[in-house]
């Protein structure tokens, strides 16, 4: 089963600007790290220190920011909001740099970690995405969007590893996401996937119908075909 980005991380089709707050990043540079302009396009500047990141950005830019905004926190919110806009426009590299600027200005801005987590879902494995999203969740434990994205990422990893712990973890996060925001259609659809992977097809259908009733565009019809093959739609809506 394949998970398109817009379904797996619930951002590109049902986009909502997320919450704010985050703890200090755990990603650290190890040993001698080459610092260059290329670090701008790596999540969290590729793990370099804030001091090194300031050198990449430049003192003149930081001075301009200080003059233009009332606080670093306000500037961070501005750049993370712009980053999400670039992401929806299909400009991930520009979005990464804006998220990085937001992080440099305020490492406790949770929007940064969620956005970079979504972008990192392009990687062959979801490990980096899970790491970033977990950091966001630490500061916003009830954020339905982060919970949904994180649960979806664990389902992707389960498909790769077949480790039941990943499936259980993903299922739990998606249940929390649906409880935190019952109107999160993507969370319901992904919860349906979790039930499907657990071979609970009745509950899978219930979750699919719930999500579809909230937003029909949240339905992944490729996945629906797989579910129908296991169990016909009890409501007879999909055949």
Give the SSE layout.
Blueprint: H1 5-8, H2 50-57, H3 59-68, H4 72-88, H5 92-105, H6 110-120, H7 127-139, H8 144-161, H9 164-180, H10 185-197, H11 201-214, H12 221-230
Characterize the structure shown:
The chain is mainly α and 239 residues long. It has twelve helices and no strands. Mean pLDDT is 86; it is low at 1-32.
Measured between the Cα atoms of the first and last residue, the distance is 19 Å
Q: How many beta-strand segments?
A: 0
Strand fraction? under 5%
**What letter string, H or E per element, gives the SSE order?**
HHHHHHHHHHHH
Number of helices: 12
Low-confidence stretches: 1-32
On the 0 to 100 scale, the average pLDDT is 86
Category by helix and strand content: mainly alpha
Helix content: 55-70%
Q: Globular, elongated, flat, extended or rod-shaped: what is the shape?
A: elongated
| Rg calculated over all Cα atoms | 19 Å
Descriptive labels:
239 residues; mainly alpha; single chain; elongated; disordered N terminus
Summarize the structure.
The protein has 239 residues and is an all-alpha fold. It is 62% helix and 0% strand.
């Amino acid at each position: 089963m394949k998970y398109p980005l817009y379904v797996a991380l619930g951002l590109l089709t049902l986009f909502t600007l997320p919450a704010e707050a985050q703890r200090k990043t755990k990603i650290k540079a190890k040993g001698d790290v080459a610092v260059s302009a290329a670090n701008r396009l790596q999540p969290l500047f590729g793990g370099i220190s804030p001091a090194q990141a300031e050198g990449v950005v430049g003192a003149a830019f930081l001075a301009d920011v200080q003059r233009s905004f009332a606080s670093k926190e306000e500037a961070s919110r501005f750049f993370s909001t712009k980053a999400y806009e670039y992401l929806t426009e299909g400009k991930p590299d520009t979005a990464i740099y804006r998220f990085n600027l937001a992080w440099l200005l305020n490492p406790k801005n949770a929007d940064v970690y969620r956005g970079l987590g979504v972008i990192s879902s392009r990687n062959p494995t979801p490990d980096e995405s899970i790491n970033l999203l977990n950091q966001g969740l630490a500061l916003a434990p009830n954020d339905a969007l982060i919970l949904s994205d994180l649960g979806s990422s664990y389902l992707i990893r389960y498909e790769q590893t077949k480790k039941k712990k990943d499936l259980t973890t993903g299922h739990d996060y998606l249940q929390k996401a649906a409880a935190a925001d019952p109107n999160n259609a993507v969370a319901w659809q992904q919860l349906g996937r979790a039930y499907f992977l657990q071979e609970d097809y009745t509950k899978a259908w219930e979750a699919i119908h719930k999500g579809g009733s909230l937003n029909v565009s949240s339905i992944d019809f490729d996945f629906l075909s797989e579910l129908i093959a296991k169990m016909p739609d009890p409501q007879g809506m999909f055949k």
